[in-house]
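Late entry, written up from scratch paper. The run itself happened at the end of the previous shift, but nothing got recorded in the book at the time, so transcribing now.
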Amino acid sequence: MSHHSWRAFSHSVTRDNYHLITFPYNKLARKRRNLTTIQVAERANISRNTLYLLEKGNASTSIGALFNVLRVLGLQDDFLKLAADDELGRKLQDLGLLGNEYK
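Output as recorded:
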């Protein structure tokens, strides 16, 4: 992921929509794989408390922790899909690219 696309992605994930990305997605994926919180936390190199917060949708957890959990669950490619269709962002970018034509 390029620096520009990472920046656009990280701005599209807000405290308001973070819970949609994390819970119940991670918890269900973990349970489907019959993995315990201890196993996932150890493999993701995060604390059990961080995993608990992620699964609850707490926005204080880091994107890095989320990515590590997705990687452990074999879902790292889904990370790139989280902001793949940024319709509003494209419209704003297009308006900026048009410059003074609409001012």
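The CA atoms of residues 26 and 103 lie 45 Å apart.
(Scratch paper discarded after transcription.)
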